[in-house]
Amino acid sequence: MHVTKYSHSCLRLEHDGAVLVVDPGGFSEPEALDGADAVLVTHEHPDHVDVAALTRALERRPVPVHGPASLAGVLGDAAEALVTVSPGQSLTVAGVPVRTYGGQHAVIHPDIPVIPNIGYLFADVLYHPGDALFVPDDVQVDTLFAPIHAPWSKFSEVVDFIRAVAPRRAYALHDALLNGNGLGVLDRQYTALSKTDYRRLEPGTRIDV
């Protein structure tokens, strides 16, 4: 499976001729959606789903959009494409085995309602948790994309999350709010403390998993 990292939390997965796009949000490049056979969205926040860009893509090529039921409230006309998923499911999306995890977004502040969030494990090797630090306990994750910075996160908690998942390698996710100074500091700290092969990929970088 080929994986292209786009800005912030967006991944494009290519497997046996099929293309899956995860979390094409407002900080990500719209071209990530080009030729997609399916879209998977972890939750409804605009940095994870750019509704206007997704709607335009669906007008060009209708494809299923997998995500929590709450996503329907923000998708507008694109909600017709929504395939609702819940935690604990095993499904096949465009030929790729997918397992779903979690259920809730991490707490941002007690005054802000907690919304649903679904983490996705692809082909039992690549895990995209969305905006939560839920650890799968029924599989050994090979490649983890870890949300390294967010209003809801704390560095020590993310380090412990990576250690708990214990992947062979981890890549940075959810990093668009950082400038060069912050990226440099966190890259050094995660490399030193995550106890795995940690790296941050520039947008557009492609890897094999």
TrEMBL record:
InterPro entries noted in UniProt: Metallo-B-lactamas (IPR001279), RibonucZ/Hydroxyglut_hydro (IPR036866), UPF0173_UPF0282_UlaG_hydrolase (IPR050114)
One Pfam family this sequence matches: Lactamase_B_3
Source organism, top-level taxon: Bacteria
Domain Metallo-beta-lactamase positions: 7-174
Transmembrane spans: none
Protein name from the UniProt record: MBL fold metallo-hydrolase
Organism listed in the record: Micromonospora chalcea
Lineage: Bacteria, Bacillati, Actinomycetota, Actinomycetes, Micromonosporales
